[in-house]
Amino acid sequence: MAQHISDATVLANGVNMPWLGLGVYKAKEGEEVEQAVKAALRIGYRSIDTAAFYGNEEGVGRAVRESGIPREEIFITTKVWNSDQGYERTLAAFEASLQRLGMEYVDLYLIHWPVKGKYKETWRALETLYKEGKARAIGVSNFQVHHLEDLMADAEIKPMVNQVEFHPFLTQEKLRDFCRREGIQLEAWSPLMRGEVVNVPEIVELAEKYGKTPAQIVLRWDLQHGVVTIPKSVREARIRENADLFDFELSAEDMAKLDALNRNHRFGPDPDNFNF
């Protein structure tokens, strides 16, 4: 169980991935994303999650370079966007991402969404990049159990990570069990329910009980479920607060209370009904 901001889970291929990272979705390219990444790295974060679609890979790369922290100590994730899927296009999209990041490799490369009829070819491209050492780990995002089964039927390499929407209103139990059995690390996007955690009485009650914020309660719940979490923020105070998770533990009873909030509610798109 994660006891420190630098603690990492070990992926199926032996690569260490920090339990906590900074998500930069919607962080504006330039000053905003650069300051957020620099603040996170100062505070002790060692994982940054971006994507081609976010339009801020350049700023992320610049912030990492200017932080003075050796590149190999930072875990960088980026993703291939839907319109770039397919074998050749993915390889080209990856090179473009590397160029924007100003890096020679990424630590994790993900397929952003399971684009029907394309994600298998896309995965073949990720396997190529992995074998070439350009991505230290490869995985998927927003894949349901049936997508994973379909992908793995022909894959040479199993996805190491599946990044999905995960929070107390969407506990994804079936998917979590499947990933655990298959040795695929689950990672949560939108862990704070787009800010809604502050409006859930049960979460607020636990925050008061533990002397923590509602966000800290939910992020701790992620970690205790063995789920990597990447809360996003561009404000230093909030980035710092989101990392203050390692001096308390939720009881089994309180974990169950949060689990019981599940209503299969998504704040983001449904991977099965998404207009790609």
TrEMBL record:
Residues binding substrate: 112
Record's keyword annotation contains Ribonucleoprotein: no
Marked site positions, Lowers pKa of active site Tyr: 79
UniProt xrefs under InterPro entries: AKR, AKR5G, Aldo/ket_reductase_CS, NAD(P)_OxRdtase_dom_sf, NADP_OxRdtase_dom
UniProt keyword terms in alphabetical order: NADP, Oxidoreductase
GO MF, any single term: oxidoreductase activity, acting on the CH-OH group of donors, NAD or NADP as acceptor
Active site: 54 (proton donor)
CDD domains associated with the record: AKR_AKR5G1-3 (cd19157)
A Pfam match: Aldo_ket_red
UniProt keyword annotation of Oxidoreductase present: yes
Top-level lineage group: Bacteria
Residue ranges of domain NADP-dependent oxidoreductase in the record: 26-262
Family: Belongs to the aldo/keto reductase family.
Name of the protein in its database record: Aldo/keto reductase
Organism annotation: Planifilum fulgidum
Organism phylogeny: Bacteria, Bacillati, Bacillota, Bacilli, Bacillales
